[in-house]
Amino acid sequence: MKTIGIGIIGAGRIGRLHAENLIRMKGVRVVAISDLFPEPAQEWAASIGIPQVSGDYRELLQNEAVDAILICSPTGTHVDIITEAAQAGKAIFCEKPVSLELERTFTAIEAAEKAGVPLQIGFNRRFDPNFRKVKDYIEQGRIGDIHSVKITSRDPNPPSPDYVKSSGGLFLDMAIHDFDMARYLSGSEITEVYAVGGVLIDPAIGEMGDIDSAMISLKFKNGAFGSIDNSRKACYGYDQRVEVFGAGGCLTADNDFSNNVRLFDGSGIHSEKPKYFFLERYSASYVQEIDDFLAAVRGEREVPVQGRDGLQAELAARAARISLLEGRPVKISEVENAIKEAAAQ
Predict the structure, then answer these.
(1) Cβ-contact 174, 155 below 8 angstroms
(2) CA 145, 147, 151: angle at the middle one, nearest 5?
(3) What CA–CA distance (Å, rounded) separates 345 from 305?
(4) How many CB atoms lie within 10 A of CB 16?
(5) pTM across the whole model
(6) CA nearest 286: which of 169, 52, 120, 67?
(7) What does the pLDDT look like over 298-345, one tens digit per residue?
(8) Domains of the chain, first to last
(9) Order of strands, edge to edge, in the sheet holding 330-331?
């Protein structure tokens, strides 16, 4: 079996996480990593056996030893890198979202499809063992036809105002995972979005033009309904739960805890808080998503989360933003048609 050469673009938190997972996998080698500020990454890269650190990602695209690229750089760079990596014939894994502009997301996806290279989007929550088990049971018909999907997604603490300013906002930065999870679990496309939200936690977020709390209602093509509950601050930890209700039963997946011991005493019932941080909560899913990506690079399967999946989540995020601003339900087709009209002009 040929060893797959990997180039990682972006040596920040998520790029380093993927690199440290990859070096423990068989049949793969991290050839190089690039970052706009390469010097801080030099010592870390050397310590885990990455031989090359570059300040120019194009050096990775030109490197014949690199078979696949992981894009872990800021969102504003994604479209150009996807396009250039596709033209270079590299398989591509890109962190979400593809872009903050739907029109540019179309451009990137079309570039990958035209070049015939795999493009996987980093919706890692699909690979969480418990969420995957829920999906398996649904596909086995254990609860019959789906009637509703409920997703709770709450962060332990709000991001900084500087992060909010460049993130694309709650719907595109945070809820985008939940839009993808809703599609994944329902097995159907979202057709309509209605969102309400406000600033209940940090006034600085409101000053950036964003919200920190939201409730989102969904309609699906298969007739099912959905709801997403988002908050930027849950004082008890990282709150990540799903429920899928069907004609034949109900499936739930609860939070992860550092241990599942509960103490019963005269003052009540006590347990640990949920795991606090997303890197801890989803540590297994980050490994699995890359393992599945490598299988696609080897030609053993298609990528499990394709570019078009990223596009559909972004369409739902755009619809949610319009809904919030205009106080009405918004159909996904309305957002798609507006983009097509803009492209035609």
Answers:
(1) yes
(2) 120
(3) 31
(4) 18
(5) 0.94
(6) 120
(7) 999 999 999 999 999 999 999 999 999 999 999 999 999 988 887 777
(8) 4-117 (3.40.50.720), 126-278+311-339 (3.30.360.10)
(9) 249-253, 239-246, 146-154, 225-231, 213-220, 190-198, 330-331
